[in-house]
Each structure stands twice: as C-alpha cells, then as structure tokens.
Amino acid sequence: MSNRREFIKQGAQASLGSCLALSVFSSVFESCKTAALTGLTIEENEISFHLSSFGSKKIIFISDERLKDEVVIVKKKDGTYYAMKMQCTHQMNPVRYTGDSFFCPTHGSTFDMEGKPTTAPAMRPLQRFTTIESGTRLIVKLT
Q1: Long-range CB contacts for residues 24-33, cutoff 8 Å, separation at least 24
Q2: Which positions ≥6 away from 140 have C-beta within 8 Å?
Q3: From CA 27, how far away is CA 45, in angstroms rounded?
Q4: CA 67 and chain centroid, separation
Q5: Using one digit for the tens of pLDDT, what is the confidence trace for 94-117?
Q6: Claim: this prediction has a pTM higher than 0.85
C-alpha cells in the first residue's frame, strides 16, 4: 500500500503524462487549422481559399470570428470535397473531430466522416454546405 507522498507523486506523474499526450495529440491536428490556408477569404455567406492549402491533408477546419460555427472541409479519395458545420443536430452544441469521426461531448452523439449520426440522441446528419471548385480555389457556400 502506498503512502500519501507516493500517491501524490504517482498522481503528478500520471498528470504530466496526460499533458504530454494531449500536447502531442494537439500538435497532430495543428496542421489542420485555419492559419495554414492560403488566400483565405470569408464573406457573409461564403468561404474561399486556394486548393493548394490542402497539400497532403485530408481534412481542414476553419474557425474564425466572422463565422458563427467552425466548418470542416474533407477531401475525399476521388479528389472531390465536402464541407460540414461542426455543430450537433441534436441541440446545436459544437462537435469535435476524433480522428475518424465526430463526437458531441454534451450528450454523446457521434457522427461518421460523412456526417451521418451513428450514436443517438442526434438523428439528423451534420449540416452540409455546397462546395465548388473554381480554378485553383475551393468555394464553400454557407447558405
């Protein structure tokens, strides 16, 4: 049985390990952030940026004070794109990307990479936005 000092030491070590793991996990997704987008423009009902911003990435998140909610853009294997609002359709809370799906931490709903609900209480898919390739740019219509 460990004494109080050993217990606190083990807890501190576990906490440090968790922080380091979170730091590594966060850095994996850092490259997906908005800052990496070339030629980003955000207007009232439209987001636009250079397709070269994707590079080898398969997913990009756009978060900006001009947008009400974060938007995720996914590049499919066939080279086409789709965009979704990062908002649960159950009670409109933010969803998080887990690496292979989306999760609503408020009530536990999950969605596949296409935005289809896989775990209740959400019954409707994540809201999709129209994407248009125009030359070297991708346009996301927010209406």
Answers
A1: 29/61, 29/97, 31/57, 32/57, 32/59, 32/60, 32/61, 33/61, 33/63
A2: 46, 47, 48, 62, 71, 73, 83, 129, 130, 131
A3: 30
A4: 14
A5: 999 999 999 999 999 999 999 999
A6: no
